Amino acid sequence: MTNTHDPEQMIVTRAAEGDTGAGATKSVYIQTYGCQMNVYDSERMRDVLRPLGYGPATTPAGADLVVLNTCHIREKATEKVYSEIGRIKELKDAKAATGGQMKLVIAGCVAQAEGEEIMRRAPAVDLVVGPQAYHKLPELIARTARATGERLETSFDAVEKFDSLPVRREADGPTAFVSVQEGCDKFCSFCVVPYTRGAEYSRGADAILAEVRNLAAQGVREVTLLGQNVNAWHGAAPKLDGGGIWGLARLAEEIAKVGGIARIRYTTSHPQDMDDELIAAHGSNPALMPYLHLPVQSGSDRVLKAMNRKHGRDRFFEIVERLRAVRPDLAMASDFIVGFPGETDRDFEDTMDLVRRVGFAGAYSFKYSRRPGTPAAEMYGQVPEEVKDARLQALQALLVEQQKAFNASKVGTTIPVLFTHKGRNPGQIAGRSPWQQAVHCDGPDNLIGQIADVTVVGSSQNSLSGTLASTTVMATATAFA
Ligand code: 5AD
Ligand code: SF4
User: What is this structure's pTM?
Assistant: First the structure.
């Protein structure tokens, strides 16, 4: 993970990457903003559009279809959508001037929250489709082609969406996201997710396992289970297993049995749902990677209460302690908000204290952003921008220091790396450590898609460098022979 910066800065995941687009007669460009759930949704949109003849475009200019998969979590993210619509409108006009046609679709959470307004403010938009409705994209696009019917589809049925998505899914390398849960019932007082993504819904184990098996058959070695509240997952057990309900620990146990799958991650979690079974699984299931993203948001009990987080700081300490008791090398990551309404210097100090006590390998930290319609937007004691700035700077400085120290602690050790792609320089390959660190070293391309031991020789804030361990070099040499 690239840490301590706003994930909105990471935007632009081009859904085209790694796709040959063979047999395509039309082109689609999908631009993804925000969280990993959106990255997953963009991949699935690509899947539902493929049978319609849509292949990937590497740039929006000239594409037949442009989809902006949007994020609504903070104000800045939302503003970006309108400026991007303006930019695409120019490309659309340019294409129309040469007799062509480009359709513009707004998907994701801004679509859900501000669909009506987008349609009113931006006539260049052909279709608005919420996160629970993108399985209907083919039908909706056909409707816009006939220029009839609804252009706003923000119905709210996660069950229907999951049931309608095709099982077949093209893998994009040795790691993959698998969405297992959607929505959130927690209603943290600052957050729009319960309004944009709807109520909590867990996908059934049969469908999840089918998707994982399909990905594994294509060479996927690591799956990241996704959900807004992924550790609240409680899905229907496979029918062959006699039915009933499983929790995430059991699901991870079954996924670990799928041939080829060596690594499992899940994100993102809520402290309240970190139950005994899941904590224990970190000790008993070696496929569960020793890196957990568990947002805490604040270290102040007073602020946590106002945030409606349903846990205090001691509960967080207890979870971390118990996890590290069963998995001593477990590294923690988290999310933090500074400048929540009413946050005093003392409250902020409590957050700094929590960070010092836990020690994080990575974190995202944000200034509180007032979201209309959420309870916190109306609270007294909104914190001035310059105070938020100063607190964010202090917090990020501490988190960066911790991240660098964590990375440096791996120097001199030999660690298993899942190689995922070629490195920046010729002869280099790159991948991920168990702790989600980016690792690069010299090595043959045929290690891509495999896990091999690397001795770490250098570290920086965001990555490790190393050399292939001698056992790996010997095994590779045999592979070549
Ligand atoms: N302001 C700032 N940060 C927010 N987040 C969610 N809502 C807001 C908001 N209104 C952050 C939380 C969450 C992450 C995805 O985004 O830290 O965990
Ligand atoms: Fe938002 Fe809180 Fe739900 Fe996370 S748990 S998605 S922060 S409401």
Answer: 0.88
